[in-house]
Structures are given as C-alpha cells and as structure tokens.
Amino acid sequence: DMELFVHGFPSDVAALRFEWAWQHPSASRRLLAPPTRRKREQPIAFALRLLPRLLRAPPWSRLPLKIRWLRPRPHPTLDPAPPPHVVEEEGAGPLPARPRPQKRKDTPPREEAPPPPTCDVCGEEWEALATPPLRCPRPPCPMAAHPPCLARKFLESEPEQLLPVGG
C-alpha cells in the first residue's frame, strides 16, 4: 500500500528526477553519502528513512514541496525532519489542480496606453518582452517587481543560494 507521496514540483521533469533519485539513491549524484539499507529493513522503512535526506539535498532543498500522508495518524516520524518549509498533509483527498498556461487572446489595441509600470524594488520600467511582474497576493497591495529583483532582496541574508525559501 502506498504510504505517502511528495508533490509541488515545478515541472514533471523535476518530479521524475526526484522519483529516480529516491528509487536509486546509491546511483544518484544528489546524495553525497547515501544511506544503505539495513539488514531486515523493509523497503518502505528504507524509503521513509531516505526521504528527508533527499528533501534536504539540492536541488530539492529549496522547492516548496508537500508530503501527503495517505493514512491517518499515527504515521512514521521522518528522521531527520524535512526542511521547515516542506508542508506535511494528511488524507487522500484531491490535489490542487496545477494551473495550465492559457492561450493569449488577441485584444484590440487601446487608444491611450497607460504609463509603463515600474518595479517596486529597482524602480526600472518593464521591458516589452520581460518576464511578467510578480505581484503581491493581497488584493489591496499594488506591489509589483521583477522576479530577479525580489530574489536578490529575499536572498540578502543567504547570498550563496539561488532560490529564496520565503520573503
């Protein structure tokens, strides 16, 4: 029986790479010192012992992943604990749907174009082909910024990292 699954990967490729590393820990380059299976250790016990080490290994250590336990408590405790930003959920309910890219509809040109928006972090205007701005999720907040600008700001305390865990 399935005990749990891990979800929230940014792409199918990232999920497949994680799955392969989980199934082949000694062949994966992601774990520097992969644990070995103990004598008489069940495969699921080994997989549960390996999971937190994978979640703490780059490139997955900074992704907003979630662990969904399919059985109610008590379920095994993961040791060591997963990174603090990894959320543990319970229940076999449906997963939130992954948003699919929408096709852009051609809209008629406006007579007056509004002034170009600016990044609230660096103050520069958006370029026509630039990445869309990241906006604050709170409706009254008008903040919008370039993704690289926000990443630099959120990583000021961790300059050696590429992805911020929060901000």
UniProtKB/TrEMBL annotation:
<keyword id="KW-0255">Endonuclease</keyword>
<keyword id="KW-0540">Nuclease</keyword>
<dbReference type="GO" id="GO:0033557">
    <property type="term" value="C:Slx1-Slx4 complex"/>
</dbReference>
<dbReference type="Pfam" id="PF21202">
    <property type="entry name" value="SLX1_C"/>
</dbReference>
<feature type="compositionally biased region" description="Pro residues">
    <location>
        <begin position="75"/>
        <end position="85"/>
    </location>
</feature>
<dbReference type="InterPro" id="IPR013083">
    <property type="entry name" value="Znf_RING/FYVE/PHD"/>
</dbReference>
<feature type="domain" description="Structure-specific endonuclease subunit SLX1 C-terminal">
    <location>
        <begin position="118"/>
        <end position="167"/>
    </location>
</feature>
<feature type="region of interest" description="Disordered">
    <location>
        <begin position="71"/>
        <end position="121"/>
    </location>
</feature>
<dbReference type="InterPro" id="IPR050381">
    <property type="entry name" value="SLX1_endonuclease"/>
</dbReference>
<dbReference type="GO" id="GO:0000724">
    <property type="term" value="P:double-strand break repair via homologous recombination"/>
</dbReference>
<protein>
    <submittedName>
        <fullName>SLX1 endonuclease</fullName>
    </submittedName>
</protein>
<dbReference type="GO" id="GO:0017108">
    <property type="term" value="F:5'-flap endonuclease activity"/>
</dbReference>
<dbReference type="InterPro" id="IPR048749">
    <property type="entry name" value="SLX1_C"/>
</dbReference>
<feature type="compositionally biased region" description="Basic and acidic residues">
    <location>
        <begin position="104"/>
        <end position="113"/>
    </location>
</feature>
<keyword id="KW-0378">Hydrolase</keyword>
<dbReference type="GO" id="GO:0008821">
    <property type="term" value="F:crossover junction DNA endonuclease activity"/>
</dbReference>
